[in-house]
Specification:
about 500 residues; Outer membrane efflux proteins (OEP); two-stranded parallel sheet; alpha+beta; about 60% helix; 6 strands
Amino acid sequence: MSCYKTRRALLPLLIAAASGCAVGPDFKTPAAPETDRYTAQPLPEQTAATPVAGGEAQTFKPGQAVPEQWWTLFGSDKLNKLVEQAFAGSPNVEAASASLRRAQENLKAQRGALFPSVDANASAQRQRASGAVLGQPANFATLYNLYNASVDVSYTLDLFGGVRRGIEAQAAAVDFQRFQLQATYLTLAANVVTSGVTEASLRAQVSATEDIVAAFERQLKITEQQFELGSVSSADVLSARSNLASIRATLPTLQRQLSAVQNQLAVYLGKLPSERESTNFELAELTLPKELPLSVPSELVRQRPDVRAAEASLHQAQAQVGVATANLFPQLSISGSFGSQAATSGDLFDDHIWNIAAGLTQPLFHGGALSAQRRAAIAGYDQAAADYRNTVLTAFQNVADALRALETDAESLRAQYEAMTAAQTSLDLTEKQYALGSVSYLNLLTAQRQYQQARINYLQALASRYQDTAALFQALGGGLNTSSSNGVASATAAQ
């Protein structure tokens, strides 16, 4: 090959090295879904209202951002303190933070490949050489010392961007761990709020059941007195006792559920169940947020940390395609060494030795491994793209479910409140009539059962309004990732 042809063959390599190009596709942030609402049917301007604390109408505020500390909207210092304790003590936060630090250090290590490797070497050896090597008699042996000190430099030119794509992939891994940490904070806050509301609801249900038990005890005494007077039969007394025992039997179940929620809340705070202090949390301490910020659908993918994490995974997978593609092209490396050799340590630096070398490696045959690795990287990208799309769909589903839940919760609470009020009125009237002997015990039993169930249903419906409000804030991304809303910072910088 002539010098002219050689220069033409090397020209693409020189251009690639000078321009700093990298093979493989450049990453572009996926476009947000083109939709202007979350639900199939338009949302009402506000939810239904009930004349009780926690029954206020809630108004949706499209276009407003979710506050970063959204749990403070419930107006409870106890709840705020629980969330702060969870952030400070949760092992899940510690694990996510450690994963982020590890990814950041791996990124620093990956960036080291952009620079030459410089190593210092020193050695001392004593050896015996046979004279036969130099054509001398076999018994003409030489015994000598050899001292060596050198500095070795090696560098592989990133002609096709394989190293830079690797750095880009690791930077995307850093972004993934950062968004995972944000998702951990968001999930932890939502779990603490939901558990706190559940604890308050169960405590209220226990209190309501205890009130009903006390009422049934009073009614049993009246029934026993009426039996002694002969106005009721022994069957009525037995029914009253059975009814009281049945109601009492529901208490252990509620208390067990309450204890389980309290233990779970202790774990969220990073404490043993025996270490958690009782907060005596009550539903009456909470304020239902009357205005619900509702970000526009196009911004949801920028706010949800799980969507951002899936985007970072997609970025990482696309960079890996570039790494696998670069492995198919030549690798140019340069190495050099400068040092000294001497027979005595005192003469070590009197004379110098050096060498410079360059090597070009072009993969020719690897049994199809390199091509298969590239196809695998492309398949990995396709998988990451499908996972990203599924994450986006799930995010919109979560918001739509939470919005409809809030709408139906308000209607359910109003219905349960009306049912409880009617059951209370009916029970009061039936108790008076039963004391006068104008109705049978069966009528009283029916009224008591209806009121008991109506009161429990009301407390559960009231708790659902608080819990689903927290679920909406979580579904919207919780506002915790607003500082990273301008894109995937680390990986974009690497790209």
